[in-house]
Amino acid sequence: MAILNVAQVAAFLGIQEIRVERLARENLLVAHGKDEQGKPVFDEEDVKRYKILAERLGGL
């Protein structure tokens, strides 16, 4: 299980970091926990599943 920070998730999904934080805040992308700065961190598998779902629903 790999843990990704906000910047890594944003790069993987091709979106801005602020949008990743909003997705976490709205519980659309479930955070695994928080880092030292209080920003969410994510499980890589959850991010991959989210990307697949978002693409099926019409894109990110």
Automatic annotation (TrEMBL):
Superkingdom, taxonomy of origin: Bacteria
Name of the featured protein: Helix-turn-helix domain-containing protein
